[in-house]
Amino acid sequence: PITNLLEDEKTFGIAVRLNEGSRNDVLDISKLLVDFENNQPLIISGIQFMSRFFLVIVLLALSFSDARAAYDLNSGKAVYDKACIVCHKTGMGGTPKLGDKAAWTPRIAQGMDLLISKSIKGFQGKTGLMPAKGGNLELTDAQIGNSVAYIVEHSK
Fold first, then answer.
1. Distance between CA 36 and CA 5 in Å, rounded?
2. What is the pLDDT of residues 33-81, one digit of tens each?
3. Which residues contact residue 6 at a Cβ distance below 8 angstroms, ignoring those fewer than 6 apart?
4. Are 93 and 129 in contact (CB under 8 A)?
5. Are 79 and 143 in contact, with CB atoms under 8 Å apart?
6. N- or C-end of the chain: fewer Cβ atoms within 10 A?
7. Which residues are bridge partners to 5 per DSSP?
């Protein structure tokens, strides 16, 4: 959602990634309100300011949209039912169970990118082990992303 601050010779501001699945769709929203060429706020009318401010709010809202917007939850459920359910239904080996809000809240706070990365590459946590791709290396990264989104959506 909101990425790190962008820095280059003329830019320093807040950036919003418009599409969770793409790292290239980034808009520096601070350019809407600041003139970086001259290092000063843009001098604009109240109406222009309000329209730009509204645009910034809309872009921020889009960047915080829930997992349903960026992932296919139906496909994620199919992958979960086929591969993930073995551990995530029972809590085998300390695995957080589907729907366990207390267990999932700190994990969800890390962000979807990190959760998906750990699920693809594998991860040894304090209380459990996540094998790479849940032990099914034939799953694609997109399928893993969809299954993580399904689990997150049902564990909030």
1. 14
2. 555 566 555 555 556 666 766 776 766 665 555 545 678 999 999 999 9
3. 12, 13, 15, 26, 28
4. yes
5. yes
6. C
7. none
pLDDT at 137 over 90: yes
Residue type, 53: F
- Letter for the amino acid at 82? K
Angle between helices 141-153 and 101-109 (to 10 degrees): 130
Of the candidates 92, 110, 94, 88, the one whose C-alpha atom is nearest the C-alpha of residue 155 is 88
d(CA 22, CA 18): 8
User: How distant is the alpha carbon of residue 71 from its chain centre?
Assistant: 10
CB-based contact 149:67 (threshold 8 Å)? yes
3 state SS of 74: helix
Closest among 11, 131, 18 to 69, alpha carbons compared? 18
Distance from C-alpha of 34 to C-alpha of 142, rounded to nearest angstrom: 37
